[in-house]
Specification:
The protein has nine helices and 21 strands. The chain is α/β, with parallel strands linked by helices and 377 residues long. The protein has two domains: 175 residues, FAD/NAD(P)-binding domain (3-Layer(bba) Sandwich); 164 residues, Polyamine Oxidase, Chain A, domain 2 (Alpha-Beta Complex), CATH 3.90.660. Helix 1 runs parallel beside helix 3 and helix 1 crosses helix 9.
């Protein structure tokens, strides 16, 4: 078994984990290791590249988000500051035009005046993945290991032993002083064994915290041009007839046009459908709402987060994804106090579950880690 020593281990290379690594770098603490289960960075952020024949377009300007798409700089200034510091430009979500209301399978959809959200929903150029890539460029790649699933954390004197398993079955052990958990609390409780066990109240609180968007799925259809805009429509719809409950314009300023929808079908029903069947039903719904041109997207994507073992647990498919309270991010006392700190978005007290929550929780967690470390020096 490979054994490595470091000061801090970060578990999870989503936005909160990468941002925590960036904060440690900026504070002059370079002795850390970031472990990620997937073979990619971003966690619940996932931007896919659409095909384009326009040679003027770079790949990152032709992406569609299968995870979070929006942020709101008017009341999430910390996230806006990060975007600006990383040089990431953003644009307002298209909402101009009429929308469709599809309230019953026994009635035709009704066209109605659309509305503009206040504050405006903003999307980064290049998709949310551009944020992940920008942070990653500021980190030491030798400090990040993908394909490492942490499954055991043991307290051992003045150290913590973190054990991870690689896809090939081999194990990797790391000795550290602190662990930052950049995962949803429920996923931590479900996947990682702690020795000694976490305090019961803490383990229960983490298990009972729903993972934001874990029960959901998203569909994207890509078109040559935004034909709905040419018809005075915003691309938005609210529907009780068909697999998608909420539909929005997914077009990029310089790329192809797109529509995306959040699926309202429960996971049990989605599991009984193949991806092709699900896409067929989504196309049929878009055609019913936006007309025959919607029937022929030249690309389609679907992501079912409830079927992603690195996001969802069985419990996430039985409960709402709205937490009633924010769980404690560390133990009040005992061997785990200050040693293991939760920094995933669900631990944010201001924006739990949102991208801004990942930044907030990572900032709070790193501050707590540095305070704890300085007290021991």
């Amino acid at each position: 078994m490979t054994i490595r020593k470091t000061k801090t281990v970060i578990v999870g290379a989503g936005l909160s984990g990468l941002y925590a690594a960036l904060l440690l770098e900026q504070a002059g603490y370079h002795d850390y290791l970031l472990l990620e289960s997937r073979d990619r960075f971003g966690g619940r952020i996932l931007s896919v590249e659409g095909e384009t024949h326009d040679t003027r377009l770079t790949a990152n300007k032709h992406r569609f988000d299968l995870g979070p798409s929006w942020f709101w700089p008017d009341y999430q200034p910390q996230l806006q500051h990060l975007f600006d510091a990383l040089g990431i430009s953003y644009f307002a979500q298209h909402e101009t035009g009429d929308m469709w209301l599809d309230q019953s399978p026994h009635q035709s959809p009704r066209r109605a005046h659309g509305y503009t959200n206040v504050p405006a929903s903003m999307r980064p150029v290049g998709g949310m993945q551009s944020v992940i890539e920008a942070i990653q460029r500021n980190l030491d790649p030798s400090r990040i290991l993908t394909g490492h699933t942490v499954n055991h954390i043991r307290h051992q004197g003045e150290h913590v032993v973190i054990t991870s398993q690689q896809a090939a079955g081999s194990h990797h052990a790391c000795h550290a002083q602190h662990v930052l958990l950049a995962l949803p609390p429920r996923l931590v409780e479900h996947r990682i064994t702690f020795e000694p066990a976490l305090p019961e109240h803490l383990s229960n609180a983490w298990r009972e915290t729903p993972t934001w968007m874990a029960p959901h799925a998203k569909y994207v259809a890509v078109y040559e041009h935004p034909f709905w805009r040419e018809q005075g429509q915003s691309g938005e719809a609210r529907s009780l007839h068909g697999p998608m409950g909420e539909i929005h314009d997914a077009s990029t300023p310089e790329g192809s046009a797109g529509l995306f929808g959040f699926l309202r079908l429960p996971m049990e029903m989605r599991r009984r459908l193949s991806e092709e069947q699900l896409m067929y039903q989504c196309r049929a719904q878009l055609t019913r709402l936006f007309g025959p041109e919607a029937a022929s997207p030249y690309q389609e994507f679907v992501k079912d987060w409830a079927a992603d073992p690195y996001t969802a647990t069985p419990l996430d498919n039985q409960t709402s994804d709205h937490a009633e309270t924010v769980p404690p991010h560390t133990a009040n006392s005992g061997p785990w106090s200050g040693r293991v700190i939760g920094i995933g978005s669900e631990w944010s007290t201001r924006f739990p579950g949102y991208l801004a929550g990942a930044i907030d929780a990572a900032s709070t967690g790193v501050e707590a880690l540095l305070t704890h470390r300085n007290k021991r020096i």
